[in-house]
Every structure is written in structure tokens, then in C-alpha cells.
């Protein structure tokens, strides 16, 4: 083993952790560092409290006077907890979080200073926005954008900073972040769903979209990770032969969590408790050193913020425990990658989960309405759903041989499939009283019993119904959930509006009763959406062929997939729903295409460097050792040396072949990159990176990985898979 690798592993193993005790009950810690409803009750005047609650619940504007009161109380609360700075906390289109800290401290003349935090500072801030991606909305010389307080996500303290969740918009009004369109989408789905709920319950005033994400990740020893330039710069390994033992034995999944990882998790979870992130579940995942963390679901905007915050603090806490967290969707070839299931549902302010069957036929009809409308929304917009989870890193899962496929389909399970079949047979138009009774008692009424034994679990489906929620499983582990949540809620909002129009028409024009009209429209939807329902194996070749016949899209790469973001249909959808303007849709498309190009470009550079400057010199060195050896054998054995050194000579040849292979392909890749860089059109450029540059990665890697098996372990420069994955 090389000295570098040896010392890295030695260091890592020297770290012999004992389990850290948890002194406080978690429920006692929960939300302690959050300016939440309880804290607001303590700190705010009644007027201010009511003002903020109205903003949270009904989107009412907060006036200046109230903002002053809130900021002053927030400051008092923060100072009481040792806070010195505040920041607007936002999520620019880089996908990560951004912050710029300002001290409360201010001078007031005469050498005096005070701690100040006014309403205007709470409500608005102006970071220099020129270096954030904006997709051509602004030129740098007019780089003015501002952040504005989002009262629906509570302020929190991290370290000694008060963080205020904000949206980030250009002065011309366009969104420059993930949160702004999400809030607009949540508003759209609230309005549309509330209107539909009124068919079933007049008391419903608000519908909330919920999200429960499940974050998968790898934990790798920090020293070992730092020894790999590819992990350091791209978040994944670009080469490395698979370890003799990987995940074949299934001995990691749900296994006991190693102490060192557990200590990290405990500290992380404690921090999550303080920040009000309701983390609940943790377990080992399928691949070695892979884990999952899941909270209790929350209102979607808050859940998205919490996921972004979590990813940020995970990195920091991991570092304290000498770990590096890998969020990349495919950090290692040959073993499972990571995803982030987005569990989604809608619920009313009367406490009803609209995707959960109820106790009465009427509430079940309501369930069916939302259930079938969601299926219809996915059916109409499958290509857009695929687009909203597209990224260079997620391409390694979707469309590669891993869960789930790039084809979007919906899994609903046997029992609900049967219910839909029965509903499809319902008479068109008016129903006889007998038919109605039969329908209500024996079809709709039976759903809860039917679902009780809904044990179907299809792990290969990208969008599955799991009893009381839909699970969007194709979201990448590295993704900001804001993007998929914006799309999902927007398409459902649009669908519910269309549905209501159709039902109202049947009631007004055809004189149907409300439930008859609902049945009629749902029946047509069931007929129209069959192509999107799929219960079989999503990974198989057979499904690809079948999906093609059904007319479903199968966009395997990001450049292909992203096109759906700027189709006429998508632009009209986002405009109609007031979620994004045409300019915003286009700018996002450009930013994401640009990001794709940059990622592949960086990976290409790193791979070229490692292959040429680390692997080839090592291979040459080893080959020279072999050559020396053969020369020596010749000296001793004379002409007979050929008999004793046959293998060595062929090894020398084999190594030459791989060195040739690497050099030739790196040259080819560099040329392909150069050529791609001259392309002006962003779509063509991205496609060139995808189809001309990226495939060469595999060719280069193949030779490097073969050499790893041939070359002396003592001089191999890169930390190996077995060391990265099994050092604990
Ligand atoms: P799995 O079996 O897929 O691991 P779980 O049943 O443990 O899933 O739930 C995973 C996530 O789904 C959790 O974050 C949980 O809070 C969330 N979840 C449960 N019910 C709902 C719901 N009605 N809406 C949204 N998310 C939900
Ligand atoms: Mg799940």
C-alpha cells in the first residue's frame, strides 16, 4: 500500500469512537432555536402575532409597523441566545443555500454603539447578486436583486447567526431562486384544491401541500476522501475498480450502525432538533457506508427549507467527525447510488389528508377525486416531471441501470387498480338510485378495507402511491426539492382547475347531481390515463419497449430531458398558474443546461488529469520494474529466459496497451471538449458534451481500472474502493 494511503487509513482507524451520551430529551430540545409560533407568542404583541399568523396562513401582507415590532422582538430573542449577526438565508439557483452575515452592531455617534435590527432589515436585503446564476435575466452591470422575508418559514439560529428564510428576486420581479416559484405553486394548489374540496365539505378554507423527504447519503472518511482529487472536485469517483466485496451479501442494509457514524448522526439529530427539523428515522442503506435519514413530513415550503438546511449542516457536522458526506447520486460505480424520495400529499385545514381514504362514501369519493386527478396530472405532464429532476449527476441513476428508470409512470397497486376498473364501468350520465347505492356501498365504500391490506411495494416505480401519499422516487439525493415540488404542485393545481370546470359544466348544462358529475368526469379520466399506470418491473428492457408503444417519453440524458421545460405547453402552464413567466422558464432552462455543461467539463478535466498525471506515470514506473526484472532474468537464464518470463512479458505488453488506451482517449476527450466549447447554441453544446465528451470517460476509466488490478499495490496512487467503502 502506498505511504499516502497507509497514513490516511492509519489516521482514520486511530479514531476509536465511544458512543457519545445524549443528556437531554429530544422533545425538550425541539425547536429551541426557532422563532416559531410558541416563541412568537412569548415575544410578540398580540397585534404583531396576529399579523404574522395571517401572513403564514392566508398570505396576508405584513405592514411596516408590524414588521418593526417583529424585528425588534426577533432581535431580543436572538440576543438572549448569544447571537451577534443576522442574515437573509436563501436558495439561489446553484441548488445550495446562500447567506451574507451582518452584525446587529451599529454605531450611533459619540463613540457609542447599539444592537439594532429594524423592520426594513428584516423585510428586505440587497446582496450583490451578480455572481449568482440568473440565466440571462440580468446583465452583470445591472446586477441588482433583493431578498425578501418569507414569514411562512420561521427564522432560526444557527451558530451565532439569526437566519431569516427569504425569497430572492431580481429588481424587475423575476425569481432568481427555487423558493419563489414554489410559494406561487403552493398558492395555486391551495386555491385549486380548496375549490374542489367545496364539493365535499363547505368548511374547507385551505389546502396544504405536505412533503416528507428521505435523504440518502454516503459517509466517507475525510482523510481518505481528500486523498482522491475526483471526490474532492466532483463529489464522486471518476475511476476505481470495484471492491471484491461490495453489496453482494446485503449485509449493510438495516445493519447495526457503526459507532463513529452513530456519533455523527446523534450530533446531527440534536442540531436538527434545535432547528425544529423533525428527523425521525435513520438506517443503513444498501451500499456499504450508505445511510438514510428521514423526518416527519411537514408543509412543503418548510420541508424544502429544512432539507436544504439539513444538507448544509450535515457537511459541517460530518467534518467535525472526520467524515465527508457524499450527496452525489452515484459516487461509486457498481454499487447503489442515492436518491431522495419525495413523499407528497395534500391536506385540508379541517384535518383531512385528501390522499387518504376516509370513513364515509363521500370522503372516499373525495379521496378518489384527488387520487385520480393526480394520476391525470402526471399523465399529462410526465415529460415535465422527468425534466424537473434532471441533472448531470442524476443521469447516473435515471436511464442508467438503476432505480428508477427515466420513464415516468405511476404505480397504484392491485387493489386500487381494481377499484379504478370498477369505476370505469359506471354508466355514463345520470345514475339510477340502485346504481348509486351499489357504487357507494360496494366500490367507493370499500376502499378503506381494500387499502388496509395494500402490501404492494413496487420499488422500481418512479411515482408510487403508498397508502396515503404519492412517493416521487426519481428525485436525486443532491437535488433541491423546491424544483420537483414546484412542478408537482403546479400540475396538480392545473388539473384540479380543469376538473372543476368539467364537473361544473355537467352540473349546469346536463343537470347532473354533484356526485354523478364527479363520477362521470373521473370515469373519463380513468379511460384517458391508462398509459401512465404501470405495475411491473420498471428496470426491464420490456418496459422500455412497452412504454414506447404507449407514447411515454424516455429521455435518458439531461439535455434531452430539459427541453420539456421550455415547450409551449410548459410555458403556458406556468404562466396560467402564475408560477413562472416565460422569461423565468427560459432562464431556468439556460441555467440548468449551463450547469450540466460545466459539470461534465469539470469531470472531464479532473479525469484527464488523474489518468495522465497519476495513473500513467505509475503504470510506467511499474512497467519499468518489470522490464528490469526481465532483463535480470535474461542475465541469469540466458536464452532460456523466455520460458521463465512469458507472463511478465505479456504483462509488460498489456500495460503498454492500457497506457496507449488512456493517452489516446484522453487526447480524444480533450479534442472533443475543445470542439464542444466553440459551439454557441446551448442545446447543441450540451448535447456535444453528453454524446461526444462523456462517453470517453468510460473508455478512459476502463483502462485505468484494469491497470489498478495489474499494478503493484505499493505504488498505486489512488485510495481504492475497498478502502473508501469499508474503513470505519
Ligand atoms: P418508506 O417505507 O418509504 O421508507 P415511510 O412510511 O417511513 O416510508 O415514510 C417516509 C416519509 O414519508 C417520511 O418522511 C414520512 O413522514 C412521510 N410521510 C408519511 N405520511 C405522509 C403524508 N401523508 N404526506 C407526506 N409525507 C408523508
Ligand atoms: Mg420511501
TrEMBL record:
- Annotated GS catalytic domain residues: 178-615
InterPro entries, A to Z: Gln-synt_C (IPR040577), Gln_synt_N (IPR008147), Gln_synth/guanido_kin_cat_dom (IPR014746), Gln_synth_cat_dom (IPR008146), Gln_synth_gly_rich_site (IPR027303), GS_Type-3 (IPR052725), GSIII_N (IPR022147)
Q: Which Pfam families match?
A: Gln-synt_C, Gln-synt_C-ter, GSIII_N
Gene3D superfamilies membership: 1.20.120.1560, Glutamine synthetase/guanido kinase, catalytic domain (3.30.590.10)
* GO term, biological process aspect, one: glutamine biosynthetic process
**Domain GS beta-grasp, first and last residues per copy:** 84-173
Give the family this protein belongs to, as stated in its UniProt record.
Belongs to the glutamine synthetase family.
The molecule here is called Glutamine synthetase
